[in-house]
Amino acid sequence: MSGPNNSYDPVEVTPLKAEAVDAMREAAVAAIAAAADLGQLKQVRIEHTGDRSPLALANREIGALPPQARKDAGQRIGRARGEVARALAARQEVLEAEHEERMLVEETVDVTVATDRRPRGARHPLTTGAERVADVFVAMGWEIAEGPVIEAEWLNFDALNLGPDHPARTMQDTFWTSPPENHVVLRTHTSPVQARSMLTRTPPIYIACPGRVFRTDEYDATHSPMFHQVEGLAIDEGITMAHLKGTLDHFAAAMFGEGITTRFRPSYFPFTEPSAEVDLVCFVCRGTAVDEAGDTCRTCRGEGWIEWGGCGVVNPRVLVACGVDPERYTGFAFGMGIDRTLMFRHGVEDLRGFFEGDVRFTTAFGTEI
Amino acid sequence: MLAPVSWIREYVELPDDVTTDALAARLTALGLKLEAISRTGEGITGPLVVGRVLTMEPEKQKNGKTINWCTVDVGDANGTGEPQGIVCGAHNFAPGDLVVVVLPGGVLPGGFAISARKTYGHVSAGMICSAAELGLGQDGDGIIVLPAGAGEPGDSAFGVLGLGEEVIEFEINPDRAYALSLRGVAREAALAFGAPYTDPVLRDLRTGEAADGTAYPVEVDDAAGCPVFVARLVSGFDPAAPTPAWMQRRLQLAGMRPISLAVDVTNYVMLETGRPIHAYDADAVRGTLRVRRATAGERLTTLDDTERVLSPEDLVVTDDSGPIGLGGVMGGASTEISASTTRVLVESAHWDATTMFRTGRRHKITSEAGKRNERGVDPTICAAAADRVVELLVELGGATAEPGTTYVGAPPAPATIPMLADLPARVTGMAVDADTTVAHLEAVGCAVSRDGDDLQAIVPPWRPDLSDPFDLVEEVARIVGYDAVPSVLPTPTAGRGLTRSQVLRRRVGRVLAGAGLVEVVSFPFTGEAALDALEVPADDERRDAVRLANPLAATEPLYTTTLLTGTLGAAARNTGRGAPGVALFETGAVAFASDVAAPLLGVDRRPTTDELEALLAAVPRQPLHLAVVLGGVRENAGWWGAGRAADWVDVVGTVRDLADELGIEVRVANDQRAPWHPGRCARVDVVTADGTLVPVGHAGELHPRVVARLGLPARTGAAELDLDVLLGAVPDAVRGPVFSTYPVAKEDVALLVDAGVAAGDVERALRDGAGALLESVRLFDVYTGTGVPDGRKSLAFALRFRAPDRTLAEGEAAAARDAAVAVAAERTGAVLRG
Predict the structure, then answer these.
(1) CATH code at B34?
(2) Which of A32, A254, B219, B234 has a 20 to 30 A CA-CA distance from A105?
(3) Residue scoring higher pLDDT (B775 or B690)
(4) How far, in Å, are A250, B17, B179, B375, B387 from residue B273 at the CA level?
(5) In this predicted complex, what is the ipTM?
(6) Interface membership of B523 toward A (CB under 8 Å)
């Protein structure tokens, strides 16, 4: 690097002459304009603005000028370098834009190619179905009660007015644990959870009990030794069948859509009296019994109604056995199959699909139902 | 219950315009649930006539079959009056027999059109029909041979066969046993339409000579088991007398098989009245009939030719020879009506329903009689039903009624139920006033007395199911109509929402599904062989399963102790169906045996606290488990390159990620446990708030033998965790983290340790030694090979340091690193690698 040269002869230094500076500037600007891409422009930048560039070298000579000449020369060089820098920046911008445009074109991919690096997961419809049911009841202020699936016989039967010699026990073919004298069964319904709730809670009680239950049914397209139920129990002062109807109408509409209501038919369950079968307006044909094409509705087989479950007013004998004062409280209870509900809600033809574990079945339902 | 409509109408004057569909719908609304309506002869059109076989020539065919070339007189039905030539493959008839012929132009069920066609070298102009071909059931081989005199050749066979009959099949609930009879169904039909009703047991019978007296000596030792025993006797019965066609038809329509006149009559009267009747061959009975409980070990061969060893709880009817019938359930073989019976002893008795139920169950007998007796039959109609049987035996079998009726005992008094008049309104929410209540109770047969708001209802004898005021409420409600129940939402007190456990279980499912796992739901049934396949040792806790007394499959008598039996089964099923990889999870209860018996408590009061505790203590332990299975393709191969198979890292990683997501600290350690690979099995422990470790389960690669045995993808891994423990460790509320924004200082160390040292131990030592400035430690490389001595391995850790309040000074991070390495050296023999 050359420092100020005080002994310098105050004559003009050739590189600092106006023509020379102009030439350098023009050369630089021309080179910038000629740069075809960012690489060339980088080279141009080094050559025309770098430490070894003519303008940089000329700038260094300013110190050699007599003080009175330095200002002019400095301004001249400064202007030239400024102009070159601006040209560079402008060219840079242009070339970057061009580059980006080209890159984006070059990077174009075929977005239709497969993107399934990892298989998707899913939750089981019986789980999400039970959750959906639970949400409907929780939204009404109810709670979700659960209990063991292997249960004391007394809780599964006797407490529910199903004594040992009750003919209705044969309606629920029971898996007994060994030895049977231990009086422990695989629960045949989730009702023992209701019994447990009455025995451990103080009314008012509003609970829904989803869970798996067992009956000794042979396994086929519509029967399974294991299936799922949701039962409900409301115990309060002044509860009537009308509250049962209101609750099931609300439940039906929440699960199947507005306007889907229920119908009661007299029936028999030991734990309720009066008892009813509850039917649902067919949510496909909406009770008309015919589909859009005018053919017999397949979902309800032309009946306009779908059998949904059983229900009734809690038999006072059950209240007594479970420690609820039948003089003060009344209650209602209901129960329906979750599997069955999902079968007609989703058009599942074969119950076994739920239990085979084939991922193609489950994945179709996703993670919420 | 199959109820022929014409039979119903015999007892109730229904308006003619009431269709069978309307009748069934109204009865369903009253509680007799319609199962199906069938119409006999449905699908049959065209000429179906009675024919008389004139000739039949057996002709042996080349295919080995013999056919009969018949000529049949069909009167003028064929338009010519000439005999009709018909080929018939059946052999159960002879010339002179009356048969059913469908002539060309007729159509049989299933759209089977009949035309004259050439077959077996003849032109067969029509067909001689079997019951199956007419859609009348599968009974018998061969064609229908009509009773002599059933009709004349050329008569339409529709009437003769009872075609066009409508039969309603009802599902009868256990409380409505009275509807297991035409008497009961007709009574409901009368109620449904307000139509006049004639009770079949109240009509005049033509056996008025049956005066008081003794028809046959009977002694009842157990009046509680058999409150009423009625016997009557007929003699001179013609055992060859046929059952008239109308009766056979009704029995068939009602689902029973005609057998012989005497038996058919008892069945007919049972269907008519609901009262099961037994008929003995009086000449086979020795001495006095006696009703008593059996003695232990006593034997009886019942009508179905099964020798039964009796229980002291069974009720038997005996004669001098010993037991001759299982009272109310099934008769004995020794006194059965035979083809030579001429004296018939008729038994019409009322039995204790509980005994009937227990005996039926004990001996696995389901009979039409038992079904009615165990649900409760009208105890006041024993004599009327016996008289009806006698009447029919006299009328149809040429018998003579012997004078006298034996009547032992008395029917129990019907129950009187007190009820407040407003109870139906209070229970149903319908507006039902006292007058309506009284009227409806009277309509079902109650005798009601009223004193202000207090009602007393004496229930009719055919309704033993009515015992409580709420039973009466149902009777009133079903007549008012359930459709009238208003729809009112109850207003519960504020609920607490889902429980913590319920919320967390949803979270577990979402985390695992989000990680690409698919949930399955398996049966919990398993067997020793399945546990053997998993190589579960004999002394393992998982062998201590709850055993079922009545499993569906003998090979699966256990309620599983491990979810893996099911989840691995689902994995194998998917693999077998061509899935390249399986990523499954399952949650559910497993169970461990309890040898504590549960008490059977009374139901007339709440159990005491002690009783309840004893009850709950007998319920087997059923922890909630989570199973995870990962095997085969975990990441697909594709245009982007190779895929990746799942390995043990995926499984342990899934468990750790789940714990992280739940805010739980877990620690893993090498362990050995079936069904895992002994060198690739991690025990997983939860670190509790006080630092203690609680075992939560295992994860890792399955034993290669198990993988091969179950047909799973190579190197399939699995985990099974106790969700109760895991979820119990979830902190109640996460504390919001505080973190430093000062610059991080990174220090990497490579440590040489013996190959057997667990990286987790080294990591923990580093963590413990590094002090408060440590932000994180992460193992980023495990290396053996050049530069590392045999039996040693190099573990490379990235340590990150940061101070909460300042930028670390030069050397601070290095000092902390050195302190960390020092602790690692002390605890694990780690040496800093140069």
Answers:
(1) 3.30.56.10
(2) A32
(3) B775
(4) 44, 27, 10, 15, 12
(5) 0.86
(6) yes
Nearest CB among A134, A206, A268 relative to B173 is that of A268
Distance from CA of A265 to the nearest CA of B (A): 6
* Residue pair B832/B821 in contact by the 8 Å Cβ criterion: yes
Best interface-test mutation with A: which of B372, B606, B622 has the largest number of A CBs within 10 A?
A: B606
Instruction: Return the residue matching tokens 């000092």.
Output: B815
CB-based contact, B496 to chain A, within 8 Å: yes
Q: Are B600 and A240 in contact (CB < 8 Å)?
A: no
Q: What's the pLDDT band for A18 if we cut at 50, 70, 90? A: confident
Domain that holds residue B271: 218-409
Measured in degrees and rounded to the nearest 5, phi and psi for residue B829 equal: 70, 20
> Considering only CB atoms, which chain B residues are within 8 Å of A141?
492-495
Instruction: Give pLDDT tens digits for B720-741.
Output: 999 999 999 998 888 888 899 9
Instruction: Give A242's contacts in chain B (Cβ within 8 Å).
Output: 428-430, 485-488
Identify whether residues B567 and B662 lie together within a single domain. Answer: yes
**Which among B493, B509, B570 is the nearest to A204, CB-wise?**
B493
- Which chain A residues touch B606 with a CB distance below 8 Å? 199, 320-323
Residues B381 and B323 in one domain: yes
Domain C-terminal end among B115, B133, B161: B161
pLDDT tier, A44 (very low <50, low <70, confident <90, very high otherwise)? very high
Left (φ > 0), alpha (ψ -120 to 50) or beta: where does B496 sit? alpha
The total number of structural domains that make up chain B: 6
Shared domain check, B361 and B280: yes
Same domain (yes/no): B606, B703:
yes
Task: With beta carbons under 8 A apart, name residues in chain A contacting B499.
Answer: 143-144
Q: Do the domain assignments include residue B581?
A: yes
* Interchain CB distance below 8 Å, B599 and A226: no
Which residues of chain A does B559 touch, with a Cβ-Cβ cutoff of 8 Å? 150, 177, 186
Is residue B450 packed enough to be buried (19+ CB in 10 Å), middle (13-18) or exposed (0-12)?
Answer: middle
Question: How many angstroms away from the CA of B184 is the closest CA of chain A?
Answer: 16
Residues B640 and B604 in one domain: yes
Give the residue from chain B lying closest to A160, CA to CA. B603
Q: Does B615 touch chain A (CB under 8 A)?
A: yes
Amino acid B322 reads G
DSSP run (H or E) holding B532 = helix B528-533
Please indicate, yes or no, if residue B488 is contained in any of the structural domains: no
H or E element in which residue B330 lies: strand B330-331
Q: Is the peptide bond before B675 cis (omega within 30 degrees of 0)?
A: yes
Give the pair of three-digit tokens for residue B396.
């149809």
Amino acid of residue B778: R
Query: Closest to A121 (Cβ–Cβ): which among B174, B516, B588?
Result: B516
Q: Are A27 and A38 in contact (CB under 8 A)?
A: no
B578 to chain A, any CB pair closer than 8 A? The answer is: no
In a domain, B626, yes or no: yes
Let me know whether B264 and B147 are in one domain.
no
Is residue A79 a contact partner of residue A24, using CB atoms and an 8 Å limit?
Answer: no
Task: Decide if B569 touches A, using CB distance below 8 A.
Answer: yes
Per the domain annotation, does B28 fall within a domain? Answer: yes
Of B357, B512, B600, the CB nearest to A183: B600
Q: Hey, of A219, A261, A358, A359, which one would you mutate to test binding to chain B, going by the most B CBs within 10 A of its CB? A: A359
Give dist(CA A188, CA A166) in Å, integer: 15
Helix (H) or strand (E) holding A271: none
For residue A346, give every residue at least 6 positions away whose Cβ sits within 8 Å of its Cβ, in sequence order, or none.
Answer: A125, A365
Q: Tens of pLDDT along A105-155? A: 999 989 999 888 888 999 999 999 999 999 999 999 999 999 999 999 999
Closest CB to A330 among B427, B582, B607: B427
Q: B161, B189, B206: which is the final residue of a domain?
A: B161
Structure tokens at B424: 């139906």
